[in-house]
Amino acid sequence: MTLELIPNGDLVFKGPFNTVSTTTLKLSNSGNERLAYKIKTTAPKRYCVKPNSGFLDPHVSASVQVMLQPQPAGQQDDRNKHKFMVQWVAVPESNTDDVESFWKQDLTKLNAHDSKLKCVFADEAPAAVVPNDSYGHKDSDLTTARVDTGDDSNKSRLKQEFDRLKEENDRLKLDIQHMKRKDQIKQQELRQRNTGNDRIDNPVVDRFKPSQQQQKGLVLFGVPLTEQLVLVAFVLALIFGFSLGYFLFSCGN
Predict the structure, then answer these.
(1) What is the pLDDT of residues 61-79, one digit of tens each?
(2) Which CATH number is associated with domain 3-122?
(3) Of 51, 128, 188, 212, which has the highest C-beta tally within 10 A?
(4) How far is the C-alpha of 153 from the C-alpha of 161, rounded, in Å?
(5) HSE of 12, CA atoms in CB hemisphere, 13 A
(6) In the prediction, which pLDDT does 108 show?
């Protein structure tokens, strides 16, 4: 009867710890008996374990998710005291209880076993230390190799994209200028065409245009007759006729 734990010594939780940090514990039944397991912790309010108990058939494994909850505000950090214990026991063939009922019975007669795990918290990955080499270099003389984060390749790719967009922008500017010139040429040709049409003589229209003599008015004895002059002549003729008639009427009496 053997229950193997992976890891079997430390449960490592990686930061940041202002959110839930999860690690996995693998349980494997390498024996020929059915096993029941149960997981306990010294800080049950800080951890969520799924599943925290169960049965394992022979040569079967199970993965347990252990989730560390964020540190409550104002509470003292006691992570250095956090520990886990995995209990397991062989399940009798006559057992018909579920896992919760099984663990409520007296286990002293069943020869229960347990394994303890210590919690380790890795806020940051430790820096790599280069040992002294065969040439006698000291650690202080060596420079830590720079980790390639891909920044250089990203910068190069962004620069290429910027250059491509700049070329495309310049090409669009040239196309716009060319279109403007073509539009100006078309407008100039249209204006010239309209001006040329205005200068063409139209005989049909000319027939209805008033002649120069009509535009100047009637001419009598070389004197142009305007509307005002005709009106004055009419008034004078009327006065003359009235006077002549009055004179003849007086002579007859």
Answers:
(1) 999 999 999 988 777 888 8
(2) 2.60.40.10
(3) 51
(4) 12
(5) 9
(6) 76
